[in-house]
C-alpha cells in the first residue's frame, strides 16, 4: 500500500507548479511488480487532485485582482478570457503536458471554468497520459522478452 500512496503523492506534487516527474515512480513501481490498473488509478487520482489545487489557487487569486500587486491586469485578462471562452476549456485535455500543463489548470481557475468540466477534462488527459506510459512500458517489456 505504501507504494501506491507514494505514487499518489508523487503524482500530486507533479501536478502542482513544483517540478517533479511522477512517471518515473510509476514505471519503477510497475517494474517492482505492482498492479498496473491500481498504479494507473492512484497516479491519475493524485495528478488530477494536484491540478485541482492549482485551479483553486487560480480561482482564489481573482479575489485580489483589484490590488496593485496582482500579477495580471484587467486589460491583460480581457483577451485571455475571450481566448479561454473559445478554446481554453478544451485545452485542459493537454494539462498532462510537462511544460505548460500545470499553468493551464491554474488559468482555468483564474477564468472560473466550471469545476466539474475542469475536473473531467483534466482527469481524462492525465489518465490518458498514464495509460500511454503503462502501454509503452508493456510494449518495451514484450520486446525485451521476445528478443531473449
Could you explain the architecture of this structure?
The protein is an all-alpha fold and 148 residues long. The chain has one domain (2-147). It has helices at 2-15, 22-31, 36-61, 74-91, 101-110, 115-147. Helix 1 (2-15) packs antiparallel against helix 2 (22-31) and helix 1 packs parallel to helix 3. It is elongated. The two termini are 33 Å apart. The mean pLDDT is 86.
How would you summarize what this structure contains?
By secondary structure, this protein is mainly alpha-helical.
Mean pLDDT across all amino acids: 86
What percent of the residues sit in helical stretches (DSSP H or I)? Answer: over 70%
Uncertain regions: pLDDT < 50 for 5+ in a row?
none
One letter per element, helices H and strands E, the order comes to: HHHHHH
Question: Which strand-content bin applies to the residues?
Answer: under 5%
Number of domains: 1
Oligomer: single chain
Gyration radius (Cα, Å) is 18 Å
Shape: elongated
Question: What is the CA-CA span between the terminal residues?
Answer: 33 Å
Count of helical stretches: 6
Keywords: Membrane, Transmembrane, Transmembrane helix
InterPro entries: DedA_domain, VTT_dom
Transmembrane segments: 7-31, 37-62, 83-109, 115-139
Domain VTT: 24-136
Amino acid at each position: 500500500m505504501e507504494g501506491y500512496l507514494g505514487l499518489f503523492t508523487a503524482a500530486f506534487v507533479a501536478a502542482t507548479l513544483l517540478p517533479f516527474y511522477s512517471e518515473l515512480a510509476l514505471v519503477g513501481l510497475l517494474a517492482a511488480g505492482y498492479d498496473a490498473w491500481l498504479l494507473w488509478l492512484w497516479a491519475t487520482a493524485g495528478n488530477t487532485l494536484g491540478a485541482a489545487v492549482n485551479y483553486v489557487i487560480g480561482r482564489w487569486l481573482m479575489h485580489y485582482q483589484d490590488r496593485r500587486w496582482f500579477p495580471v491586469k484587467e486589460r491583460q485578462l480581457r483577451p485571455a478570457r475571450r481566448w479561454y471562452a473559445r478554446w481554453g476549456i478544451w485545452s485542459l485535455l493537454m494539462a498532462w503536458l510537462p511544460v505548460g500543463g500545470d499553468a493551464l489548470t491554474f488559468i482555468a481557475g483564474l477564468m472560473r471554468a466550471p469545476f466539474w468540466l475542469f475536473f473531467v477534462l483534466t482527469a481524462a488527459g492525465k489518465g490518458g497520459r498514464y495509460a500511454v506510459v503503462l502501454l509503452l512500458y508493456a510494449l518495451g517489456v514484450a520486446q525485451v522478452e521476445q528478443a531473449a
